[in-house]
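Q: Could you fold this chain for me?
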Amino acid sequence: MARIQPYILVSIVIISAITGWYLINPTEEKPYISEEVSFLASDGIKISATWYVPKELEAPYKPVILSHEFDGDRQDWNPFISDFVERGYAILAYDIRGFGESQNVDKSEEYYDTLISDIEGAVTYLRNRNDVIIDRIGIVGAQLGGNIAYAASGYIEEIKVSVVISPSADIGSLIRGEGVDTFNPHSILFQYLDTERTNIQPLIDRAEEPKTSRLYRPESPSVRASGISLLHRDLRALSDLLRYLDENL
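A: Sure. Below is the predicted structure, expressed as structure tokens.
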């Protein structure tokens, strides 16, 4: 029997690997166009992000900022991008400073109170675009990102609605608005598990009207999940989020 040449074996392996990848990850037409972008936070830190716009709609768009969890990055929102853009929103998903491709920083005790600067930079970036409705900005955040979304609703005028998923009342003083007379969090949808109620209630109490709360009680403890995982495991949560944006942004 003739001996198969090594380069033929290598070619077979490569082709098999590519074929297997496409079988596991079938190609599909995305409803958006994406672009890798960057901007400076208000204190000069470089932030990396991805900008998504709907393919089938013309500008201007209502922009929504997505803020991820601690130890995550903007890719965590990938499974939901199509859900947002199909409703006509443009999406700015960014890496919080110190995570993903954004500039690395020291995560000392003061770290959390610097995070609102990322959103100030994001709003400036949006203000410099000509394809958005700048006074109709929404923000959605989970866990640490939820705290950022909460703070953004209280500090940044252009932020009209916020969705705050599984935040913590124990993170940073500035990000919670402690001692800041001008801090006015409002127009917020809080989403959280029943087990998180005690921790989140102080943030709900501080927020002014209009505000809405959605508490979720999974039927089985085995599917309990907070933050972004809540959107994966409880279809009600994602539907509530999208409906809130549709009705208020």
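A (continued): The domain at 30-248 is CATH 3.40.50.1820 (Rossmann fold).
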